[in-house]
Each structure stands twice: as C-alpha cells, then as structure tokens.
Specification:
Blueprint lengths: L8 E5 L4 E6 L7 E6 L4 E5 L5 E6 L18 E6 L6 E4 L4 E4 L3 H7 L8 E6 L11 H15 L4 E7 L5 H11 E2 L5 E4 L12 H12 L6 E6 L7 E5 L3 E3 L8 E3 L6 E4 L2 E4 L14 E2 L7 E5 L8 H7 L4 E6 L14 H10 L3 E6 L12 H8 L3 E2 L5 H12 L2 H4 L2 H8 L14
Parallel strand pairs: 6-9, 6-10, 10-12, 12-13, 20-21, 21-22, 22-23
Antiparallel strand pairs: 1-2, 1-5, 2-3, 3-4, 7-8, 11-19, 13-14, 14-17, 15-16, 17-18
C-alpha cells in the first residue's frame, strides 16, 4: 500500500481472492475503494486486505493533445450540455469530469475526428437532462442558431443526457425556423470507461449525420444492442423506451430518417433536404412554462384540475387511455363536468395517448364522444412529451393564445413532423 496512490491500477490481495482495478481516493479511514474493470466500485475493510500491489502507475501528467485540422474534411460544431457522453472517469475521486474541449473529446472519442473537423465547441451549461427547463432549451437554440448561420459549418452536434433528451429534441424542433443544416442530438447510455459504452459509435454516426443533407432536428443513436449501426430519428417522434439498453430510443408512429453505418448513410424516409440557398436560421423562442402533463388512471378524481387552475396554469395535456378516454360513467369521478368548468375558465386541455403507439379517435365510443364535446383538443398521434412542449410553445405566442380556436388550429398544424399522416410501427 505504501507505493500505491489513487489513480494507480492495482491488485488488492485478500485471503482467498485478488481484485484488480483502479484505486480510488479513500472515502473514509479504514476503507479501500476500487473501481473494477466492469466499471463498478467495490469497497474493502482495510484490516481484511493483506497487500496492495501496483500493476500500473496512473498518469500524473496532463497529456498535451494537438488536433490538426484537415482542409479536406468538412467542418462541424459541437454543443456540449453534460450527460454520460460528456463525462470521463476521474480515478482519483471515483466520479466523473466533464469533456468540454476538442482536446478532451479527441482523447476519448478520436473516431469522430476521422470524418470531420470539430472547429467550434460551445458549452452553454453542464446539466443532467432532468435538471433542464425551457430556459435551457432556449439557450441551446440560441447557440445552435449562431453556429448554423456560419457558412463554414456544415452542421451541429449536441451531446446530451438521455433521460429527457426527447423533450429537448422536440423543443429545438419548434424553436429553430428555416432550418437548412442538420442539428444532431446524441448521447450515451454507458460511460466511456465501460467496454460496452455506446458513445463512440453514436458520435461517429452523429458526425456523418451532421454533414449529410438531412436538414432536420434529429436524434442519432444505436439502432440495435450491437455496435453496428445507428438511426437518425425525427426530433418530435422519438422517445426513450428503455432505462439502460444502448438502443433505448425508438421512433414512434413514424420511420427514422436514415440508417447510419460508420461509413455510410442509407435513406429510409423523406426529410427536409439541406440547401445552401435557404434563408438564415431564425429563432422562435416563445414559451409558456405554465403547462403540465397528467396521466389518467382508473378511479382518478378530476379535482386535480382545480390545482392547476389555482396555480394559474394555462394549458394541460391529458395522457388518456385507449382511443382517448377518461372516467365518465361514475358520477363521483366523472370528468365531463370538471372538464367543461376548467375550459370555461380559460384552461386549454389537450389529449394524447398513453398507449404511446397509435392514434386517438374519440368518435368510436360514447364516452369518447362525450369527452370531445367538452372542447378537448385531441392531438391524433402526437407523443405526449412532444404535445407538452408544443402546447407551451403555442401558448407562448400571445396573439395565438388569446383565441381558443387559433390554439386548436395551431396544435393540429404540423410544424415539425409531430403529426403523422400514416402511422408506422
């Protein structure tokens, strides 16, 4: 133990077993902490350890990395916001440090530089996605707009945490107007210090997407659990569908734009074509934060809507069952009367499907027809998360929000591919 310091790769010898890994800083006296090759940490009582042998000394010196620009490669910009993909293990503390410069990115993700020059890196904030709100989405949009309007930059890559990534992709889809270059959001489910990390392939595919002719806000990530290809997925039609799998994100009720391999892109569906003749990207950042998403469940009392009125909410998306249903037949908790009351008081109520896949159709059953008569705006096949973002964006426009008829028209207008003419499974 005398020669071993935090950051060294060591063997911890117990009576009957030896554990190898990176030695971490002691969390408290009497405890030895080790990061195993699997990426997990393990702790030992110091009195149970016979010996600690240094296998390999950790790097004490900061590495100097020079990134050479290749004039034959296209230029892209990157916006870093935090999340697993923008973090690396700090072996001394057992936690992570942010990758927030081209040099740090090159060290851990050299593959992305094989296809493009990353000429600019912006870091508007470093946050986990669950800590973001509309103000962060607006900052991202401002950064993206500035970079997209630079003639030498072919596209923008945004690195982001996974949990609420689809809210951000939806927000950017509405905030960025006249888009004529790719905006590519990407992620990793597993950190770079794990052998199973998905970060390298996702970034390589994101680089190809950023220099493609797909002038859309898209999410690029693993298309399968293997390291073979990624999908380019529409920003308003994608959802995180698994807590930990590498191919966690799926397109809902639509098709991906493209299938991306490390060396090529195969088109799958239609998309907005990149054009150098288009107008400059503009911003439409209006947003009403007093909107909410509520899931309907059996026996639920409608009085919950009074809470949102009291808190001066402007709009609400109800995630309804089946084709668009809520309790209606029991007098004690029928939603019909309450929905009429709150809408008469100015609350905009929209409906999305909690089934995720499929399209709402309140005309099929009598309870759906009763609910529709209250004035609810049924949002067809729009994802509930996208619906929440769109409702905030629509109500943020004062000239639209003053007229319920205009709000309905705008919510059912297809601004960014959020509504599908034909459902795809």
């Amino acid at each position: 133990m005398k020669n071993a310091v935090a950051g060294d790769y060591v063997g911890v010898h117990l009576t009957r077993q030896i554990y190898e890994g990176v030695l971490l800083e002691n969390p408290e006296p009497g405890i030895i902490l080790l990061k195993l090759d699997s990426g997990y940490n393990i702790g030992f009582n110091k009195k149970d350890v016979l010996e600690i042998k240094v296998v390999e000394k950790g790097l004490e010196k900061k590495e100097e990395i020079e990134i050479k620009k290749d004039k034959n490669k296209p230029n892209v910009a990157m916006i870093i916001t935090g999340g697993t993909i923008a973090a690396r293990l700090n072996p001394k503390k057992g936690g992570v440090d942010w990758l927030d410069t081209p040099e740090s990115l090159f060290k851990f993700y050299p593959g992305v530089f094989g296809k493009v020059n990353i000429v600019k890196v912006e870091v508007p904030f470093m946050k986990a996605s669950e800590d973001m709100d509309f103000k962060d989405w607006q900052k991202l949009a401002r950064s993206a707009k500035k970079l997209l309007n630079e003639p030498s930059i072919k596209g923008v890559i945004v690195t982001h945490g996974t949990d609420f990534l689809h809210y951000t992709s939806a927000a950017l889809s509405f905030f960025l107007e006249n888009l004529n270059k790719p905006v590519v959001l990407t992620y990793s489910q597993r950190s770079i210090d794990r052998a199973s990390s998905d970060a390298n392939l996702n970034l390589q595919c994101a680089a190809l997407a950023a220099i493609s002719d797909i002038a859309e806000v898209m999410l690029v990530g693993h298309g399968s659990s293997n390291d073979d290809f990624c999908y380019a997925m529409p920003g308003t039609k994608v959802r995180k569908m698994h807590t930990s799998k590498r191919d966690a994100f799926k397109v809902v009720n639509a098709k991906p734009f493209a299938k991306i391999f490390p060396e090529r892109i195969d088109k799958i569906s239609d998309y907005n074509i990149r054009t150098t003749k288009g107008k400059k990207v503009k911003l439409d950042l209006k947003f009403e934060e007093k909107v909410a998403l509520v899931k309907i469940y059996p026996g639920q009392e409608p009085d919950i809507l009074d809470f949102y009125l009291k808190k001066k909410y402007r709009g609400i998306v109800l995630e309804m069952s089946g084709l668009g249903h809520a309790p209606t037949k029991r007098a004690r908790n029928s939603w019909i009367k309450k929905l009429k009351q709150v809408q008469e008081k100015g609350l905009v109520v929209c409906a999305a499907a909690q089934t995720i896949y499929g399209r709402l159709d309140p005309l099929v059953y009598s309870n759906g027809r009763e609910l529709m008569k209250t004035g609810i705006i049924y949002l067809e096949d729009m994802l509930s998360e996208t619906a929440l973002i769109k409702l905030g964006w629509v109500l943020g426009h004062a000239d639209w929000a003053k007229d319920k008829k205009i709000v309905r028209e705008k919510m059912l207008e297809n601004f960014a591919g959020e509504l599908s003419d034909r459902l795809e499974m």
